[in-house]
Every structure is written in C-alpha cells, then in structure tokens.
Specification:
The protein is built from two helices and ten strands; from the N terminus they run H-H-E-E-E-E-E-E-E-E-E-E. With 171 residues, it is mainly beta. Strands 1, 2, 3, 4, 5, 6, 7, 8, 9 and 10 form a ten-stranded antiparallel beta sheet that branches. The two termini are 18 Å apart.
Length: 171
C-alpha cells in the first residue's frame, strides 16, 4: 500500500501520454541501422506529453518494419515502432506528480513495463521511497520496489510517508 501511495500516480501519467510524439535532444546522435537503433549521448532529454526522461545516454531500439526495404534505402527506412528504450547514467524520470531517479532505466513496449535500477529514489511531494529496482507495469497499474540482492540493513526497501493533514490541506 505504501508503494502505491508514492509510485501509483506514475501509471496514470505514463499511460495517458503513450500516443504523444517523443521530442528528444542530446549532444550527439548516431543511427545504427543494422541494430535498428538510435543512440543519443550527452545530456539527453526526451519529452512525451508531461513526462520527461533525462540521462547521460539513451538508446532507442525499433522493431522490424512490415514492408520490404530497398537495397540502398536511407538509414532508419523500413523500421517499425519503438521496441525498447534504454537510459543509462544519472537517469531521471519526471512526471507532474513524481520524480524517479536511478542509474539505468528500460522501457519495454511489448510488456508496457518500465524498470529503473541502481540506487532508486522515488519522490512524490515529501514522500520518499528508496530501493534497488523499481518496476512499473504501466497498463496493469502496478508498481513494485525491490531491495538489493543481499537484503542487508542498507539493502532494504525504505519509505518515508507523511500523512495528509486532517484539515484537507495535505502535505
């Protein structure tokens, strides 16, 4: 329940923007046609609707296209929809209600899932949740936070939650 309080609002924000265009910028961009991948490096920022993804590098992988590809076609020609997005290094995923931070983030289109790993911190107002792996199943409206593999004192999921004030003002 506590996880839902801090992480639950992300699903609504993510799913409502799914059809919106993605506006992406960075210091460098490279197309790797053989892998159907576009690699963005250096202060990369991707915007979709009200959501913002920032990282040191973002790789976008596309599925195969449905039609035949001409022999000397331009790079990126004949690619399908986005299959997977990988963000690495200082990853921040920001929605109007929450900020999630980690070292790596992966969005997989087939399962409509976002996984953020590596010293993950999620903040919603004053509420803060910490762990090693955050998994958001967007379509299912479900989120989980897991601890590190050792499960020791510094490797447990930890949350600090502030109750709303009784006067309705909330925190």
């Amino acid at each position: 329940m506590a996880l839902t309080l801090c992480v639950g609002g992300a699903q609504a924000q993510i799913s409502t923007n799914r059809g919106d265009p993605i506006d992406i910028s960075g210091d460098n961009m490279e197309v790797v046609d053989a892998q159907r991948m576009v690699a963005w490096k250096g202060r990369v920022e991707a915007l979709q609707g009200n959501n913002r993804l920032r990282a040191d590098a973002i790789n976008i992988y596309y599925g195969p296209g449905t039609g035949p590809r001409a022999e000397n076609a331009a790079p990126g020609t004949g690619w399908g929809d986005i299959d997977r997005i990988e963000a690495v290094g200082n990853v921040y995923f920001v929605t109007p209600e929450q900020v999630a931070r980690g070292e790596k983030g992966v969005y997989t289109a087939a399962s409509d899932t976002i996984v953020i790993t590596g010293d993950v911190v999620v903040a919603q107002g004053e509420n803060v949740l910490r762990g090693d792996t955050l998994t958001i199943q967007v379509g299912a409206g479900r989120s989980t936070m897991d601890a590190g593999p050792g499960g020791g004192p510094g490797e447990r999921v930890r949350g600090v939650f502030y109750p709303k004030k009784s006067d309705g003002a909330g925190r």
